From TrEMBL:
Disordered as annotated region, ranges: 62-84
Name assigned to this protein: START domain-containing protein
InterPro entries named among the record's database cross-references: STARD11_START, START-like_dom_sf, START_lipid-bd_dom, START_lipid_transfer
Keyword field: Coiled coil, Cytoplasm, Lipid transport, Transport
Compartments where located: Cytoplasm
Length: 329
């Protein structure tokens, strides 16, 4: 239930944009209102999941046949030999940036959180999942880099990256998403997206324009891993794409990498392993400038609460989606 303070504020300011450096809303009430909005979005997501499950149970034969047809179409595109190599994207003008950023982010993802005294602070520790951040601000805006390390069972690196990259599944696990537009279909493993996020009062609505690239890593850096895949997202803007801050949305600027590695027990390989044999090591790194203005203490409090929920929700979704399907390497 919304708190009384959030309810009063909504009644008083519902017709006004109150995000900004001159806002008079107290920081604790700003956080309270945003937290209430995020909780409502999560409740709506859980309701959609339950309704979807009930629909599948009551129409199992029809749903299964439709899903199989769609899945085969998606798999055909992603099973080509050059998927994940960037071969088809190398003639695009974005490729030099994509290749450079992916290489830089991969190097950073592989670095330990204690290397070089780089200031990482542990803020969430839940079993196999550990989350770290470094406190950084640019022009008063919080852009704290985040690094998460997690280990899950029953899925491969390819499967984890597949569900993170493919826009067909994004609404299932990214709860604040309102709309996804494919701006530039560069290649099957490289796309440019414009994502619009739900407005969470009292903050302004946000959008993000970024390229996304899925890649198989074959440098044998970790010889104990069966395979390694990454998805890298990075904000981009050129004259061909929708400009920033031209309408109701404030533009988010982001750099994200999801690094996943598959491990198999000794004596097992891709032909003999079952899902019970699969271990997936995950490293998730992000730096996000949310744009606009919001109190630093509020942003950090929201990140501390929402990032662990996001990673658990996403990995749980992939495990559930993959459990009854053939293993994808």
């Amino acid at each position: 239930m919304p708190s009384l303070s959030a309810a009063r504020l909504f009644k008083s300011f519902r017709h006004k944009e109150i995000e900004g450096p001159h806002s008079t809303i107290p920081e604790d009430e700003f956080f309270d209102a945003v937290e209430t909005g995020l909780d409502k979005i999560e409740e709506d997501r859980q309701l959609r999941v339950r309704l979807k499950f009930q629909s599948q149970q009551s129409q199992i034969s029809t749903t299964s046949s439709v899903f199989t047809a769609n899945q085969e179409t998606d798999d055909d595109k992603q099973q080509s030999e050059d998927f994940g190599t960037g071969v088809q994207a190398r003639t695009h003008k974005l490729w030099p940036e994509i290749d450079r950023i992916c290489t830089e982010q991969l190097d950073q993802a592989r670095q330990g959180v204690g290397d070089g005294g780089n200031g990482w602070q542990l803020f969430a520790d839940e079993g196999e999942m550990k989350m770290y951040r470094r406190e950084e601000e640019v022009d008063g805006m919080v852009i704290d880099p985040l690094k998460s390390c997690h280990v899950v069972q029953g899925v491969t690196a390819r499967e984890m990256c597949h569900y993170f990259f493919d826009p067909a599944y994004r609404n299932d696990w990214e709860t604040t998403l309102e709309d996804v537009q494919l701006v530039d279909n560069v290649a099957p493993d490289t796309m440019v997206f414009l994502q619009t996020y739900k407005r969470i009062w009292p903050a302004s609505q946000r959008d993000a324009l970024f390229w996304s690239h899925m890649r198989k890593i074959s440098d044998n850096e970790d010889q104990s891993a069966h395979d390694t895949w990454v998805v890298c997202n990075h904000s981009n803007q050129n004259e061909e794409y929708p400009p920033a801050n031209q309408g109701k949305c404030v533009r988010i600027y982001l750099t994200v990498i999801l690094l996943c590695q598959t491990y198999l027990p000794p004596g097992k390989d891709a032909k003999t392993a079952t899902r019970d044999d699969l271990t997936c090591k995950i490293t998730y790194c992000s730096t996000v400038n949310p744009g606009g203005w919001a109190p630093a203490t509020v942003l950090r409090a929201i990140y501390k609460k929402e990032y662990p929920k996001f990673l658990k929700r996403f990995t749980g979704y992939v495990i559930e989606q993959s459990k009854n399907k053939p293993i994808m390497y």
